[in-house]
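Researcher: For the record, we're logging two predictions in this thread. I'll number them. Prediction 1 follows.
Model: Prediction 1, sequence and structure:
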Amino acid sequence: MSFQERAKLGLERLSKQSPVTLTMARKQARKLKSLSQSSTKKRRG
């Protein structure tokens, strides 16, 4: 599969997804940040 074919398939999949609002994206980013911080604390401890 060529790079162009992969890019086309990726764009098609993205167009089928429901749009993400800014608040949803921020909420997800905060969640991921807190999860990554808690996992680093566990490794150090």
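Researcher: Logged. Prediction 2.
Model: Prediction 2, sequence and structure:
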Amino acid sequence: MAAIYPLAGILFIRDFRVDAAAKAVSVAEAALRDEQAKCARRREEHAAYRIWRVEESARRYQKIIGQCLGLGDVDKFKKGLALLADEELQKEAAVQEAARAVEAARQNVATARQSWRNADLDRQKILYHREQWQKDRAVEAARAEDMEMEEFKPVLFVAEAGAEK
């Protein structure tokens, strides 16, 4: 009968922890990919808006050239340009926020990977112990078999020993 490894329960728990850590790494990597995609979209939106704003400003200037405008109209024109510039600043801030989110996601991936490494190392320790335990059990079994063979005397030899007396 094969002996049951005494730390089998701990090994099961360690395997479970390694699996959970591997899943956490997968989730963190998926979140990183999502954040990178968001950041790329924000950069594209910002770049497109920047080009559009320059064109829109030029179009608005062309529209008022040669017109007589009152102070109220000039103020409205300036406010419109300021709103365009403010929108660009908001898009730039969104890009920076997305970049910070990507960096945070990278940190989460690094943390998850380190947790997985630690869990795997703990499991490897138990696996090494189990391997050593199995080797020791095999040596003990061989030794017990040798002892049993030494104690065994065939009937033939027992009869001869009795005849010599």
